[in-house]
Amino acid sequence: MALQNLREISKNIEDAEFKNLLADLSSELADLKLEAASLKERIAELQEENALLKKTIAPSDEKPSGRKWGCYLFEGDTTLYCPACWDSKRQKSSTTRVNTRFRHCPVCNAPIGAG
Ligand SMILES: [Zn+2]
Q1: Which tens digit of pLDDT belongs to each residue from 53-68?
Q2: Most buried among 13, 76, 83, 97, using CB within 10 Å?
Q3: Are residues 73 and 47 in the same domain?
């Protein structure tokens, strides 16, 4: 690595200015690395958001064909899906039965009332 080489060379140089410069460069490099890391994170976030938006906005032929026990039903499918997950993320989360009146979505943790 270039910085390491510079440090090695600097051992033989008794020039305070050079050493200060090297220290400055090291800290600038460290700052840049941090910045690059946070930019990478930001990009990943935006990619995720973008994918979600595409999914939500893209016109989909698929629509719930009806409702049962507060859940969405789809054509040719008897599974009861979470309406909150579908409305917000176009995601089909199958719900689980809690009791005779309530179902539960394991994805968003929403209790879904049968009433
Ligand atoms: Zn849900």
Answers
A1: 887 776 667 889 999 9
A2: 83
A3: no
Distance 112 CA to ligand 1 centre (A): 9
Please state, rounded to an integer, the average pLDDT across all residues of the chain.
88
Show the domain range for 29: 2-57
The Å distance, Cα 56 to ligand 1 centre, comes to 15
How far, in Å, CA of 59 to CA of 63, rounded?
A: 10
Indicate if 70 and 53 belong to the same structural domain: no
The whole-number average pLDDT for the span 10-26 is 83
Which helix (DSSP H) or strand (DSSP E) does residue 84 occupy?
helix 83-89
Tracing tokens 């390491």 back to the chain, one arrives at 4
83 and 107 in contact (C-beta within 8 Å)?
A: no
CA 89 / ligand 1 centre spacing (Å): 9
